Amino acid sequence: MFKSRKIGRDDSWEGIVTNKSRGMLDGSNMYHFVEVHLADGESVKVRISRRLWKSIEVDDRIAKRPGAAPARE
Description:
Blueprint: E1 3-4, E2 13-23, E3 31-38, E4 43-48, H1 50-55, E5 61-64, E6 71-72
Parallel strand pairs: 1-4
Antiparallel strand pairs: 2-3, 2-5, 3-4, 5-6
């Protein structure tokens, strides 16, 4: 099971993309999500930008550094 939460500006994590999804949660805006399996064994579902969502695939490595947006490694 995964835990879904909003990414904090000062959060830092790194992991492997296990699933991609998108949806119109509020009926007017498309949101892009990835499920990431972290090194400590935990899985989290995070919202990412459309540009990043389109550039990654399942099994790609993605990282979030403090003060920066998630990025492909």
